[in-house]
Amino acid sequence: MAESTDLEQLMNSFKKFAIHGDTKATGKEMNGKNWAKLCKDCKIIDGKNVTGTDVDIVFTKVKAKTSRVITYEEFQRALEELAQKRFKGQSKEEALTSVYKLIEGKEPTNVGVTKMAKTAAVDRLTDTTKYTGSHKERFDESGKGRGKGGREELVEETGYVGSYKNAGTYEEKTKAK
């Protein structure tokens, strides 16, 4: 029973890494980049026994000749190969269990992702209540930008004729005369 939940967690981790960074991914197949990320994030790559090159070689070895991705079954075969390299002193089954334990429940980390700077200078520059004059009209009451409508005076092009502009201003023009 414990074995099935371990494999279920392994499958969940596989799916999470398979869809990482790819909006079209289904989670059934994993590309080489995500395979390398999984090995790095889950500490399968230790720099001594298993390197990034080893991970790439195993990926190429287990995938189909013309394919660019591996399935879950090929993923398990790749783990079997890496397990023996990573845990040399252990038996085949113990090494595989150790590798599974490294991966179970893990998901891709976003190390190095740029965080939004929140400093006093940025706060002052983005505070719309301090804007005056024509710049003040770029924002509505809530402080949300109006886009092009806040920068330019947009003319309505409505009417019977395609190039007719300034609908509803005829009466004003005739009264002025």
From TrEMBL:
Its main location: cytoplasm. SUPFAM superfamilies: EF-hand. Belongs to the TPPP family. It comes from Oncorhynchus kisutch. GO terms for cellular component: microtubule. This is Tubulin polymerization-promoting protein family member 3. The keyword Cytoplasm applies. GO terms for molecular function: tubulin binding. Residues 131-158 are annotated as: Disordered. Residues 134-153 have a biased composition (Basic and acidic residues).
